[in-house]
Specification:
Layout lengths: L1 H20 L16 H23 L17 H12 L4 H20 L1 H9 L3 H8 L5 H29 L1 H12 L12 H30 L7 H7 L1
Length: 238
């Protein structure tokens, strides 16, 4: 029985190895693969995703990366937008404008800290996933990353965002706003969860901004030969 078991395990290992060494018929766009193996494809997709994450963080994780970027600027949560409108009527919305800016500053600070979370997800990509990604649409790798990191990424990103919002003063400003509202008749009030709402809102929009630019870089690698900066990228996407 033990000998049979060893033969079975050997057979399974051999099957996995042969699968990794199998060549692809075509590359993206229907081009011939010229002997590109499935293992090559996996390495190429991981390289593309790592490039995408690096590009995304380099784009959004800097001063004004979110704040001055109209396509990913983090808006205030609806409750705070309502407060902003009420304070604007009495000419006291300056504090809300500052809070809006510091919310975006928090997203800018948090993005670079999240890099290892993405790298871990990329490293676990399987060969079969890589084959589907190579043959998939322009953002197939980004979709894979979003699907596989989803809720866990949000959970890991939350304390990073909370710390960043604390550093920028955004959380302190929520307390200041609450105090200011008490002196204005009929103004809306902030609930006890206002800070947690701000944090979760920052996480949601912060990740959306990151994924947007991972997808931008992935498409560029697929479309533009100049973006294929390594041999494996040229082999997989060339």
């Amino acid at each position: 029985m033990e000998l049979d078991r060893r033969f079975i395990l050997l057979g399974l290992s051999s099957t996995a190895l042969l699968s990794a060494c199998e060549t692809l018929d075509t590359l993206p766009g229907g081009l011939p693969s010229f002997g590109l193996t499935q293992a090559d494809a996996a390495r190429g997709i991981k390289a593309a995703l790592n490039n995408g994450v690096g590009h995304a963080i380099g784009t959004v994780g800097i001063l004004n990366g979110f704040w001055k970027n109209g396509s990913i600027q983090v808006p205030l949560p609806k409750t705070l937008r309502d407060v902003q409108s009420a304070l604007k009527v009495v000419g006291a919305d300056g504090i809300m404008n500052e809070l809006h800016q510091q919310l975006n500053r928090g997203a800018e600070k948090a993005a670079p800290v999240a890099k290892n979370i993405f790298v871990d997800a990329i490293s676990s990509l399987s060969i079969s996933d890589a084959i589907n990604i190579v043959r998939g649409p322009d953002d197939a790798a980004t979709q894979y990353l979003h699907k596989t990191t989803g809720s866990s990424l949000a959970s890991l990103f939350t304390p990073i965002m909370e710390n960043a919002l604390g550093q920028t003063g955004a959380l302190r400003l929520v307390d200041d706003v609450s105090g200011q509202l008490r002196s204005i008749p009929f103004a809306p009030r902030l609930g006890a969860d206002a800070k947690n709402d701000l944090i979760s809102h920052g996480v949601d929009y912060g990740l959306k901004g990151l994924f947007k630019y991972v997808a931008v870089e992935e498409k560029a690698i697929r479309d533009n030969p100049a973006k294929r900066t390594s041999e494996i990228l040229r082999r997989v996407f060339g």
